[in-house]
Amino acid sequence: MLKNFKLWLLLLLPFFAQAETHAKVQEALDWELPVNTCKKPKMIARSSLVVDAEGEHEFTDVDSYTIERYDRKRKRWESCLGEYKEALLVDLDELEDSAQYGLTSPQADIILGKMALMQKVYLSPDGRIEEAGE
């Protein structure tokens, strides 16, 4: 009788494990990569160096206002990208913490896949999935 009980318990254990998914684990399973809304400014041709008989001369194709505007846009983009990547680190910590509530093997595989994607996007220069090689 005890042997049959153990067999039933082993058969029903995966059912109970899925039925009793902790809220934090479910959040981790439902997590999706947030959209990166940071727009990188387009590069501008700043200047060209021309060497003539008198020495080097620098000619600018763009006025100083346009260069300063580009620099401001680039700083805003870098700030936005930094905030996006910081948010990814917070999400990464939350996904890591979800393991303390118990994970099945398939759940762990899903969460580890999401963490790997986060890491690739975080390490990409533009914080984009295309830059991460996906």
Please explain how this structure is put together.
The protein is mainly alpha-helical. The chain has a domain at 21-37 and 69-123. Helix content is 59%, strand content 9%. It has four helices and two strands, in the order H-H-E-E-H-H. Strands 1-2 form a two-stranded antiparallel sheet. Helix 3 (64-97) packs antiparallel against helix 4 (105-123). It is rod-shaped. The termini are far apart.
What are the key terms here?
2 strands, mainly alpha, two-stranded antiparallel sheet, 9% strand, rod-shaped, 134 residues
Beta-strand content estimate? 5-15%
Share of helix, binned: 55-70%
Supply Rg. Answer: 26 Å
Order of helices and strands: HHEEHH
Strand arrangement within the widest β-sheet reads 1-2
* Main beta sheet: 2 strands, antiparallel
Which regions contain 5 or more consecutive residues with pLDDT less than 50? none
Structural class: mainly alpha
Mean pLDDT across every amino acid position: 80
Spatial shape = rod-shaped
Total helices: the number is 4
Cα distance, first to last residue?
A: 54 Å
Q: How many E strands?
A: 2
Oligomeric state of this protein: single chain
